[in-house]
Amino acid sequence: MFHAAHGYQRAPLPEAPESGPTPATGTATAVAPATAGRKSALPTATEPPRPAGRDAWFDNAKYLAIVLVAVAHAWEPVMDGSRATRALYMLVYTFHMPAFILISGYFSRSYTGKPHQLRRLLTGIALPYVVFEVAYSLFARYAGDKPDQPISLLDPYYLTWFLAALFVWRLTTPLWRAIRWPVPVAIGIALLAALTPGIGDDLNLTRVLQFLPFFVLGLCLKPEHFQLVRRREVRLLSLPLLGVAAVFAYWAAPRMSTKWFYRSSSVQEIGDGVPWWSGAVVFLALLACALVLTVAFLAWVPAGRSWMTALGAGTICGYLLHGFLVRAGDYFGLFEENPWLGGPVGLVTVSLFAAAAVTLLCTPPVRRLMRPVTEPEMSWAFRRDVSELGPRR
């Protein structure tokens, strides 16, 4: 359904305006304002980029994905007593971060390492990573009664891995735009990472490399690919696919480790007793399932502007802040002292609370409040580039 174009093109892609990260995440989320409303014809090398408005479809997709991220995180402490909940958890974890990462790659197409892009990379991704890495570590140390919890910028803690990964992926964008077969190369690197134990915890590199194909695929996509996904035929075809995936997840729930979906370990380290060659098959199968379910999810995203559209611009706040609520429930014994949360009524309650909380955290007032951390200007910290002063002179 997705047809990835090669990363080698003679005419440059129109430059997408950049904003803070938007995980799909939780994802926290790292995506620039949407530009899919542009015409598919690319400008010539001499044409300047033409500004375009936000596409409501992308903002809606980001909001719905961050709701799934928050709900899945809320399910994790209470799903052990319910096979159905574990199956839903595995189903959602198959595609929610791949969807966010793919969209992040799509809006990173214009990154070439220009001075203003490097500044945005530092202020919109690196700075939030540092702030929330320290904040989550201190929260675990004092609220979670973990006095030995280290503060290390090289070892992402909890949700901050996505910001570290996005920083690495976006820095390598010019490389992926230059090579002839970027997606197969990225899949090969991801597979090697999955088969290599002991890569280490630095920047959670195992996860960065295993999720890499979705980012590179996003770099190769064009607006017409997303228009194809939004067709009625694709939407109808996605229903039986989702049904089959749900049935398989229910069968696999008691048999399969959730570590396969986190992509933070090699197949040898997961501990299911599988040989490396069958682990490679499982990894590639999950990669294909993630892509198919991502298409199915995107096919049902509403296209028009609605109440959720404005919330899609603030998913970075929802992603980074909802983790404190989930961690607080764990640290203060909310899930252990209330076993009824693992029952049907409790799971519905947890899901509604998580969806409402992350929705509130994505609202414009919260985004304005968090702007000094997630979208700071910091012009005082950078030199003025000569090329930017040229037109004024």
From TrEMBL:
Domain Acyltransferase intervals: 56-354
Compositional bias of kind Low complexity: 21-37
Keyword Acyltransferase in record: yes
Family annotation (InterPro entries): Acyl_transf_3_dom (IPR002656), Nod_factor_acetyltransferase (IPR052734)
Residue segments, region Disordered: 1-52
Chain ranges passing through the membrane: 57-75, 87-108, 120-139, 151-169, 181-199, 205-222, 234-253, 273-300, 307-328, 340-362
UniProt protein name: Acyltransferase family protein
Originating species: Streptomyces genisteinicus
